Amino acid sequence: xxxxxxxxxxxxxxxxxxxxxxxxxxxxxxxxxxxxxxxxxxxxxxxxxxxxxxxxxxxxxxxxxxxxxxxxxxxxxxxxxxxxxxxxxxxxxxxxxxxxxxxxxxxxxxxxxxxxxxxxxxxxxxxxxxxxxxxxxxxxxxxxxxxxxxxxxxxxxxxxxxxxxxxxxxxxxxxxxxxxxxxxxxxxxxxxxxxxxxxxxxxxxxxxx
Amino acid sequence: xxxxxxxxxxxxxxxxxxxxxxxxxxxxxxxxxxxxxxxxxxxxxxxxxxxxxxxxxxxxxxxxxxxxxxxxxxxxxxxxxxxxxxxxxxxxxxxxxxxxxxxxxxxxxxxxxxxxxxxxxxxxxxxxxxxxxxxxxxxxxxxxxxxxxxxxxxxxxxxxxxxxxxxxxxxxxxxxxxxxxxxxxxxxxxxxxxxxxxxxxxxxxxxxxxxxxxxxxxxxxxxxxx
Lengths: 209, 226
Hints:
- The structure holds 2 protein chains of 2 kinds.
- Chain A is an alpha/beta fold.
- In chain A, 31% of the residues lie in helices and 26% in strands.
- Chain A has 6 helices and 9 strands.
- In chain A, a hairpin with a 2-residue loop joins strand 4 and strand 5.
- The longest helix of chain A has 16 residues, at 168-183.
- In chain A, 46% of the residues are buried.
- Chain B has one domain.
- Chain B has 9 helices and no strands.
- In chain B, helix 1 crosses helix 6 (95-124) and helix 2 runs parallel beside helix 6.
- The longest helix of chain B has 30 residues, at 95-124.
- The two termini of chain B are 30 Å apart.
- The mean pLDDT of chain B is 90.
C-alpha cells in the first residue's frame, strides 16, 4: 500500500495521451515535512503528473488520495489544502499584482490587503504590488506567482518549474521559502530540472525513460 | 477562514467586471455592433416608416443575438489561455460556482448593457414607446438565456484555436426559439395585442437554461480542462 494516511498518496497512476503511454504506473507518497523532487527529460509527463495530483486530470488507472481518501471524494477539502503554481504564472495582465492575488487567494481563504502585500514583500516584489501584471518582467511574474502560493497558506505545495526565469537571488529565495515551508510541517511537490539545494527530507522521483 | 459560496460568487463577479472595465474596447464592441447594425437597416431599406415598423422587432432581435454571440467566445478563453482558469478550478469552490458567476458577469456587461441601450435603438427603428417595456423584458430574458446557452458552447470550444465558428454553430440553432418568441412578443406589443404568451415562453426557457446550463457548462469545461 502506498496510501499515506497523513498526507498525499499516489498509487499506480497511468495516463495515456492518445497512443502515448505518458505515465506508466507512477506511485509515491508524501507526508508532512517531506519534499518530493520530480525530475526527468522534457516530455516525460512531469506536468501531466502534477495535473493528475491536482485533480485537473483524471488518470485512466490508479488513484490519488489525500489523508487516506480519494481526492474526488474530498475535492473541496483537498483543494483548500493545496496551492498549485503551474509553469505559466497564471496572472491577469490587466490586473495589478495585488488584485491578482486578491482574486485568486480570496476564493480560498479570507485575506486582508496587508497579508497579500506582506507575501509580495517576502518574494521581493512588494514595490510592484500596484503595477499591472502585464508590465512586470517574467521573473517578477514568477515571484508574484510564488507570493500567491505563500498567501494561500496551504499545507501542500505543488510547484511546476518554480525556478524558471528567476535570477540567482530569486532561485535562492524560492529554495529558502520551500525549506521553511517544509520545516514548518508542510509538504511540497516540485518539478525542476536541476538539483535542489534544500536541506530537508527530500526524495527524488525521476520520470526518465 | 473558509470562503462561503456567495462570497466567492461576488468576488468572481467583481473580478470579471474589473477585467471588463480595464478593457473598454472589448466592453464596447458588442454594443457598438448592435448600434451599427440597427442603424444600417433603416438606411438600407426604404424610408417608409410603416415598413420599418413591421420589420423592426426582427431587426432588433437579430442584431441583439449576433452582438451577444460576438462576445461569448471570450467567456472562458482568456482565462484558459493564461492559466488562471486552472487556478479558479482549484480554488475549492467547485467549478459550477465559477461558471455561474462568470456567465452572470458576462451577461451584465453584454446582455444587460444591450437592454439598456435598446430604447434608443427602438426609437430609431420607429417602435412606439408603449412597446418598450415588453421589448426590454423580452430582451432581458432572451439575452440571459443566450448567455447560459453560450456558456455551454464556450465550455466545449475553449480548447480550440478557432472555436468561435463552432461556437456559433452550436449556439445559434438553440437560440432560434428566442428569436421567434422574442421578436414575436415585441411585434405583438407594437400592434397592441397582449404579448404575455410569448413572454411566458421566454421566461420558461430562461428558467430552464439557468437551472440546467450551469451543470452542462461545468461538465463541458471540465472535459476541456483535461
